[in-house]
Design brief:
The protein is mainly beta. 4% of the residues lie in helices and 41% in strands. The chain contains two helices and 27 strands. A six-stranded antiparallel beta sheet has the order 5-4-3-2-27-26, with no helix packed on it. β3 and β4 form a beta hairpin.
């Protein structure tokens, strides 16, 4: 016999146990609180929302283990340009995230709820994570590299080239328990708003009009002036060796990346969906489609994702209103739940002292929601 101990389950159980009393007293049925579909208001002046939150959708009973009935989606702050790449520091007790287009990194201090500028200029940082030693690892679009911030405040370049060829624009990062760092390297940092454009005519500078030397803070452009490599997923070894895990091509470009709780599988955005592959030593095998990210016939375009302790994959959704937000997929690739947001959600992470809160970077705003499950990995 199983029991549903979520507040949803308790309310449902009580209602089914005393239907006669409820009807005898002619009590009106509860009206769901406002949702994004009918003008939900967010922010400090918003009226209290009802429990359960109408924008947290349970699509499969398994999602009852992921969400709690007495939690509501909270918008922490708005006014960003393109919020991305959140990561949780267990040692520092803060969330770090990027505003890629504004060229700033921010921190959300858990104890106070403050958001403060952390690094300006961030060199258009995108993805962030923390390794098993608590060191922050960052993907920098502008300088087209992956770096690590050491505990003494110094900075180490993890990777900026492959066999002498410059990287494109490292995007998302996942540390492995063996000490390696896996990251994706798509094209996007060659956009004028997210890094620096290629010199001359190129894929993201098709007319050759954008000038990457203008407005770069006098920092200069170190290294790559033009993208020359295909988009790839890479594995950096603690020895310093950099290997291609899988090579992309137009239409099949990698983005978000994360490991299963036991590190036997790796999930990465591949084109318009998410693929999964078995981790075999320093390589992968049996790459296959995990999900096309279609829900109700609507494509919920994936960006960044994280995995919880049960192996569910939580993915940011870039889609239309009603499907923007977060999708939750069980280990078999079946949709089990959704979080609806009024903005496209690029990326997310688990955070909080128990790692049981979800931080969502959604375009101009950042959001939090308390969960009934924990994230599986550091960062």
């Amino acid at each position: 016999m199983t029991f549903d101990l979520t507040r949803r389950g308790m309310v449902a159980g009580l209602a089914s146990a005393v239907p006669t009393l409820a009807y005898a007293q002619n009590r009106p049925q509860p009206v769901p609180g406002s949702s994004i579909l009918n003008g939900r208001v967010y922010g400090p002046d918003a009226p209290p929302n009802t429990y359960p939150d109408p924008d947290i959708l349970i699509l499969d009973p398994a999602a009852n283990d992921c969400f709690i009935g007495h939690s509501s989606i909270k918008r922490v702050k708005t006014g960003f340009e393109w919020a991305e790449g959140p990561a949780w520091s267990e040692q520092g007790q803060y969330v770090v995230f990027s505003d890629v287009s504004k060229d700033i990194q921010y921190r959300y201090i858990w104890e106070t709820g403050e958001i403060t500028e952390y690094r300006r200029q961030s060199f258009n940082s995108n993805g962030n994570t923390f390794d098993f030693q608590g060191r922050q690892i960052t993907a920098q679009h502008f300088l087209r590299r992956v770096i690590r911030w050491e505990h003494n405040g110094s900075m180490t370049v993890i990777a900026d080239n492959y066999n002498g060829q410059p990287l494109n624009s490292p995007n998302d990062i996942a540390p492995h328990k063996d000490g390696s760092i896996w990251f994706t390297d798509p094209y996007y940092g060659a956009q004028l708003a997210e890094g620096h454009p290629d010199d001359g005519v190129s894929f993201l500078n098709p007319k050759g009009l954008a000038n990457g030397n203008i407005g770069n803070g006098s920092a200069g452009i170190v290294g790559a002036r033009k993208q020359v490599r295909p988009p790839c997923v890479y594995r950096w070894d603690p020895s310093g060796r950099l290997d291609v895990i899988v090579e992309g091509k137009p239409g099949l470009v990698p983005n978000g990346i994360a490991f299963s709780p036991d590190y036997s599988k790796v999930y990465f955005v591949w084109g318009s969906g998410i693929d999964v592959a078995d981790v075999v030593g320093t390589k992968i095998a049996n790459q296959r489609r995990f999900t096309d990210c279609d829900v109700d016939g609507v494509h919920c375009g994936p960006d960044g994702h994280r995995v919880d302790v049960a192996g569910n994959v939580w993915s940011g959704s870039t889609s239309q209103l009603g499907y923007m937000g977060v999708t939750v997929w069980n280990p078999a690739g079946k949709i089990i739940g959704r979080i609806r947001l009024p903005e496209t959600c690029a990326n997310l992470c688990f955070c909080g002292p128990k790692r049981d809160w979800l931080w969502m970077c959604a375009s101009q705003s950042v959001y939090l929601v308390h969960l009934g499950i924990q994230g599986a990995a550091p960062g």
